[in-house]
Amino acid sequence: MSRKHKGLSVFFADIAQGVAKNDVWLTFAMDDMQQRYRRSALGLLWIMLSYALFVGGISFIFGAFTRFDSGAFVTYVAIGFALFTFLMAQIIDGCQVFVNSMTWIKSVSMPLSVHVFRSIFRSIFVLALNLVVAFAAMILFGWRPELVALMSLPGFAIYLINAVAVQYTFGFVAARYRDVTHLTNSITRIMIFLTPILWVREEMTGARAVAADFNPLTHYIEIIRAPLMGELPRMSSWGIVLALTAIIWIAAALVGAHLRRRLAYWI
């Protein structure tokens, strides 16, 4: 077996072994969440409270600039921001996923994917709490689930599939080139303004509409938000998401196959 093929087999074997050790990364992830909010009176409720305050404030201010009625715009913002937060977390946390776990990587023999799944589960936990608030607000404004909402389930599956590849890729690259972390932090700060969360994509025309369509996050959010709002997602969005998923996994496999052996020297 060539070195390239051996590297790829090791990469995918690492992921499979990490999945099998779900008790380890689940324990790590829950401990991370408890440590973050230890000695806080509200604890994990701060996640839901900060999310609710953001959605409420944005809906109140930006709702005046849209043709959507107040209930529909709150739903639009609530779902969009919850999904956006999850997607951004995969990039930001991915840059630190191996660096923050350097003690474990250097001292304990375990699949690298354990640290990736640990990070992803933290994001899933936060997303679940945010969606609880989102659905509560949506129901309050008269939202009722429709059959088309089931089309959001494949979207959530795609999110998880992408999360693994994204965190692997950014984890290796940022461990080697630390400037990547600072670059991604700078870019992600402005992405919320370039992604249809505070504004409605369908109300934009000209260059703004083109810019929105060139933004991959627009399409990732579309495949879940549209069904939950009772609409069919654009097939072009699904096509772009699936194409990007394939590209991201190819990048993750190549990076994982070539760089994993040097990881211990970089962190």
Give a quick set of tags describing it:
single chain, 267 residues, mainly alpha, globular
General description of the model:
It is a single chain. The protein is mainly α and 267 residues long. It is 76% helix and 0% strand. The chain has 12 helices and no strands. It has helices at residues 3-20, 22-36, 45-62, 70-96, 102-107, 113-140, 152-176, 179-194, 206-214, 216-228, 235-259, 263-266. Helix 3 (45-62) crosses helix 6 and helix 7 (152-176) packs parallel to helix 11. The longest helix is centred in the middle third of the chain and has 28 residues, at 113-140. The protein is globular and about 55 Å long. 30% of the residues are buried. The model has no long low-confidence stretch (mean pLDDT 87).
Detail the topology: elements first, then pairings.
Elements: H1 3-20, H2 22-36, H3 45-62, H4 70-96, H5 102-107, H6 113-140, H7 152-176, H8 179-194, H9 206-214, H10 216-228, H11 235-259, H12 263-266
